[in-house]
Request: fold
Amino acid sequence: MIVFLISLIVILYVVIRNPLPSTIFGGQEFRDVYELQKQIHEYSGLDKELYMSYLVSIDNTMAFIKENPANASKSLYKGLEKLRDMGGNLPAGDSDIPREINTLADKLGKTIEQYIMKYALQDGFKFTPRYLNNRFISLRDNEHH
Reply:
């Protein structure tokens, strides 16, 4: 009986700390990031190794985003570098793919930096963005996130 009660308390704690819908289905909190990732996925076949490296870095970014802005930003920039490398490794020609990938990388960088900035401001951490340039972002700007 005691083991059952302890198990129940642990399960309730986990559910309260990690609401099930977002834990199971993912992406609800960072919907705009995942929408950009869907667009980027179209280019995954260009270089599967670089794409997987990009994906792991962005997943790490999202895992660190709330607790450690410094690690989140390092993972973000590493992932964006891998993403850009996918477009840069194409044979020379008149392809628009490198420019499209670069545009998506910029959008993803700005979008994720807004989240990093939001959590850094809330928790009193210093964060110096690369993609947002010198644009001031207040907590109110991020209420839709």
Observations:
- Residues 19-27, 137-142 have pLDDT under 50 and may be disordered.
- The first helix runs from residue 2 to 17.
- The CA atoms of residues 59 and 120 lie 18 Å apart.
- The chain has one domain: 29-142.
